[in-house]
């Protein structure tokens, strides 16, 4: 798979799956043992813009770290509210 981060080689255990952006170029190599059973589908984000999704992800990860490191911190309510307000603002109808 070739994406924003360069080439990635993915070998998964039976029953696992990989999700990747539709903009990624990928290649499926031949099965060397057993049988491949595949399923594919598309997922659409509520937030269309990549940069906005990245900002929401970064904000969410900061909230997760703050929750872990300082549970009950007064800033958590405000940051979580900001996250949800941005999500509502940027979500496509």
What report would you give on this structure?
By secondary structure, the chain is mostly helical. 39% of the residues lie in helices and 4% in strands. It contains two helices and two strands; from the N terminus they run E-E-H-H. Strands 1-2 form a two-stranded antiparallel sheet. Helix 1 runs antiparallel to helix 2. The chain starts with a strand and ends with a helix. The model has no long low-confidence stretch (mean pLDDT 90).
Would you summarize the structure shown here?
With 93 residues, the chain is mostly helical. Helices cover 39% and strands 4% of the residues.
Instruction: Specify Rg, calculated over alpha carbons.
Output: 18 Å
Secondary-structure element series: EEHH
List low-pLDDT spans: none
Strand order of the largest sheet: 1-2
Beta fraction: under 5%
| Total of helices | 2
First-to-last CA distance: 31 Å
Overview features:
2 helices; single chain; mainly alpha; 93 residues; two-stranded antiparallel ribbon
């Amino acid at each position: 798979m070739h994406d924003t981060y360069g080439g990635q080689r993915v070998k998964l255990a039976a029953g696992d799956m990989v999700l990747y952006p539709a903009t990624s170029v990928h290649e499926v190599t031949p099965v060397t043992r057993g049988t491949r059973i595949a399923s594919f589908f598309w997922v659409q984000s509520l937030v269309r813009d990549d940069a906005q999704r990245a900002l929401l992800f970064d904000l969410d990860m900061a909230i997760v770290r703050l929750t872990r490191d300082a549970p009950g911190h007064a800033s958590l309510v405000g940051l979580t509210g900001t996250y949800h307000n941005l999500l509502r603002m940027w979500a496509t109808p």
